[in-house]
Amino acid sequence: MSKPLLQWANGLSGVKKTMQLTEQHKHYWRRNLRLTGSLLAIWFGVTFVVGWFARDLQHITFLGFPLPFYMAAQGALLVYVGLVGYYAYCMGKLDIEYGVQEGDQ
Questions:
Q1: CB 97, CB 23: distance < 8 Å
Q2: pTM of the complete model
């Protein structure tokens, strides 16, 4: 084992450092997890539900294409980009609200 890695591994043994979370930290993480969970539910629906029920959804058209085809070709990708943008926007606002933002904002 290299010397820095060995020093790091030795530092892990026996010493437990715990961080006490305040109510503000808990509330921040609760809101963060709620946002993440809701966006993951949307991701799951777009990714798996549309594919799973593709035959049943074949009669629905979007921009002249059957919905399952459109979602597989480009719709899902647009939703994913939207989810990432929305998450970044919401987390930026949440970070500012709780005073944990990065940089000079």
A1: no
A2: 0.70
